[in-house]
Model the fold of this input.
Amino acid sequence: MKRVRRDRLKIYMDVLLVIKKESRGEKVVLTKIQQKSNVPFDRLKTYLSELKNLGLIQDINEPQLTEKGLEYLTEYQKVLDFMKRMGLTY
Amino acid sequence: MDNLSLVIIEIISAALAFVLVRFMIKPYRMTGEARYLGLPLGFAFLGMSYIFMGTSLFFSDYLNVERMQWLQLFTGAYAYVFLAITYYFSAKVYEKKINLLMQFFLSFMFLVFIIVFIVIFIPPVFELPDYKTLDEYFRISNMILALYVTICTLRVHARKPDQKTIMAPLGYTLLAFSQYSFLVWSLDASYSAFIGAHIIRFAGLFVFLYVSYKAIIARE
Done:
């Protein structure tokens, strides 16, 4: 099967989604994010630092979504749902 | 149905199309991929074509509205071309060259639009062909493009059948069917086909409004 390359936006969103799911009242462990978002550990650190600079997460070592991060993720999921309904592939 | 009622339908259709542009631009704004730009452009051109159609109907008793009809013809065709190209590129695995191709295509279409504008508004330089004949060809090509988009959306639905994904093919089928009705009207001057085309098109736009509402607004 042909492997589809994820672009940066998809990786960001996968990471944010894992953080959202894992952080329900618990401490988020980086290895769990790494496993679930399927990103190598060294690159995960880079992505987390970029997400922090964008104001989407609070901390790199114990990431939690900020208000802006949560809004962005919600908007992303809405647009994905819209694209699916419109028959567009992404 | 008198001309005024049809003009009102055109105005409402144009308003619906422009409201839809607000939703259709979201995939492009979120992803930044030029291949999705055809979707808002397509609906914007649809809206423009309805405005030109409404204007030509409204002023049909007072002015020579041939130029408005020509603009309606070209903007309508542009709409379907943009929609078809979006679905064509959307079905492909994303690569940078798709962005380049789309940008090239947009520049090309812009150039064609300028030429068309010159041809329509400077008739002494270029002689316009027979409007009615060209209108029929354009309706056929619009119908084919709308059917192509319907097939693309149906393919997506068939891959993973879901209630959510059946509305878009329905919307595009209605748009294709409205082009067919306009073609029938053009061929045999059937007034019922003309009214039917407006109603079907109206229904198609409502389907897209429903899709946008369910995905973007109702989700909140």
Notes: Residues 131-159 of chain B form the longest helix (29 residues). Chain B has one domain: 3-217.
